[in-house]
Amino acid sequence: MRGACARNGHNEQASEFISMAAAHLHREVIMDEDHKIVSADEWLKARLDLLAKEKEFSRLRDQLNQQRRELPWERVDKEYVFDGTNGRATLAQLFENRSQLIVYHFMFAPDWEAGCKHCSWWADNFERNIVHLKHRDVTMVAISHAPLHKIEVFKQRMGWTFNWVSAANTDFNYDYHVSFKPADVDKGEIYHNYRPKQSSMSEVAGVSVFFKDPQGGIFHTYSCYERGLDMLNAGYHLLDLVPKGRDEEGLPFPQAWVRHRDAYQDPRPAAGAHS
Q1: Which residue among 51, 63, 126, 275 is least crowded, i.e. fewest CB within 10 A of its CB?
Q2: Predicted model pTM
Q3: Can you give the residue range of the structural domain that contains 84?
């Protein structure tokens, strides 16, 4: 997410728009002039070479996934109580009678009026997956630092149905290193992604996973941040399939093009469209 959620203002958006349009035009010219064109037989040979690499990558990914599941766990002894639509809820209650819980740490600071536009793209991706996860003994929720009333207004605007609770009255966001206290922000150094980092951000995104045993014990099994979140975004995986890829080179920062899904203004009509 790279802190882009803190960037606001119409002038900055206009500047980003101009930069993005120029980058797109430049990239189109380069791709049209330089991309290699081959015969069907040559294309097939190149594709089979890449397929071998894709299969090896899949095997390595399976191994990495297994190593992730084999990580040791840490017991969660601290009591966390969140504010939700149906009242206050403990971390244990967020599991909803399932044994596995995925928490998406949604960037939404207490003084913001809307949730992070980049986290919103991630939420658009997992919103309709939650019903499927429930059938694999998994509950998924979003947790933010903002007060519940702001969360609910924004959630309604976006049309989401997932459970989204507020950690405004707990240390949860601080303990899982996705919100930072004013003293740390003022110093310009936060602890993020398992290391000290020079940053004045007050909020970051992340994902944390928990397990609850039959006796009610809760364990933290995994957390990831930054590029580790790519695995949750099917949109990025789709972009990785197309010739331009993510097409973010030359932008002011990665994801500078991302908007809340009700705020896009297409800079040009689709190919073949008529005015």
Answers
A1: 275
A2: 0.86
A3: 1-35+71-264
